[in-house]
Amino acid sequence: MNKYILFTICFCMTFSVFSQDIFGKWKTIDDETGEAKSIVSIYEKDGKVYGKIEALLKNKNKDALCTKCEGDEKNTPLVGLEFIKNLKKDGDTYKGGTIFDPESGKKYKCTVALNEDDPNTLDVRGYIAFFYKTQNWIRVKN
């Protein structure tokens, strides 16, 4: 009987680790200072994956506007800004969409995946051609 209980516990623990996904809230980390910068929400909408800024942690001006955005998003608040758009699942990776950097005003192709070694770390890569930059975001636990 004890073998069955142990097996059930191990199975449930294994299943819960492998069933984690990218959806939820993530803390972004500043590349230069290593400090937490913002809280981002990753979610699905109309079969695609998006990300928006939920809160600014580093910026003293919590009401900051996206002055480098274009079109309808120009001068809209950073909090609430949908800056990851149109990602599609491809195996364990989400790709095919874009990520916008509100600080530089540049848009990049984007891939997002859970870190292979730590499912509480999200690898977010923005790239143009062969040039890329990867950030590691940390899962926010409720």
From TrEMBL:
Domain DUF2147 as annotated: residue spans: 24-139
Chain segments annotated as transmembrane: none
Top-level taxon of origin: Bacteria
UniProt xrefs under Gene3D superfamilies: 2.40.128.520
Cited PANTHER family: BLL5882 PROTEIN, BLR1215 PROTEIN
Protein name: DUF2147 domain-containing protein
Species this protein is from: Oceanihabitans sediminis
